[in-house]
Write a structure and sequence with these properties.
The protein has about 70 residues and is mostly helical. The protein folds into two domains: about 35 residues; about 30 residues, no CATH class. It is about 60% helix and about 0% strand. It is elongated, with a radius of gyration of 16 Å.
Length: about 70
């Protein structure tokens, strides 16, 4: 959890220092993983984002499930 918080702080610093919003950048409160309910579509998008499942596999599952 400490690594996630550190990465978040670095991201906030980066966006505040170099982003278009500057010091007006508002990241909102920290939400620990697993505290927000995730639907099926959001989970599939997350898996694609982090690269755990090849996109072709997910697309094939989408085609067969509809």
């Amino acid at each position: 959890m400490d690594g996630i918080k550190l990465a978040r702080e670095l991201t906030i610093w980066f966006h505040s220092s170099f982003g278009k919003a500057g010091t007006a950048f508002n990241p909102g409160p920290f939400v620990p993983p697993g505290t927000k309910p995730v639907g099926k579509k959001e989970h599939a998008d997350y898996v694609l984002f982090i690269g755990l499942t090849p996109i072709a596999v997910v697309e094939a599952k989408k085609r067969t499930s509809t």
